[in-house]
């Protein structure tokens, strides 16, 4: 009888170890996934900021070029 109890105790301990190991792997995977997602979002935000800055610069350049054309047209009309 005592060997049966030891086997059940060993089996229960093994089952608990497997459950805990699996659970901790899931948590670690979730944490890693969350961290990667956060880094990805940060990278996307940085790219969006870079794109926004580039578009603003292009708009300013186009406005300057249009103003220069107007100024040249006015001088040519005089």
What does this structure look like?
- The mean pLDDT is 76.
- The protein has 78 residues and is an all-alpha fold.
- 97% of the residues lie in helices and 0% in strands.
The global form is rod-shaped
**Main beta-sheet annotation:** none
Separate helix tally: 1
Order of helical and strand elements? H
Question: Helix share of residues?
Answer: over 70%
Show unreliable segments.
Answer: none
Q: Report Rg.
A: 33 Å
Oligomer: single chain
Summary tags:
single chain; 1 helix; rod-shaped; 78 residues; mainly alpha
Give the helix/strand layout.
Elements: H1 2-77
What's the short story on this structure?
The protein is mainly alpha-helical. It contains one helix and no strands. It is rod-shaped and about 115 Å long.
């Amino acid at each position: 009888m005592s060997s049966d109890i030891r086997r059940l105790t060993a089996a229960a301990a093994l089952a608990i170890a497997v459950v805990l190991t699996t659970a901790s792997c899931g948590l670690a995977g979730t944490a890693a996934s969350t961290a990667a997602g956060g880094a990805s979002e940060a990278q996307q935000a940085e790219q969006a900021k870079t794109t926004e800055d580039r578009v603003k610069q292009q708009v300013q350049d186009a406005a300057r070029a249009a103003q220069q054309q107007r100024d040249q047209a006015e001088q040519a009309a005089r």
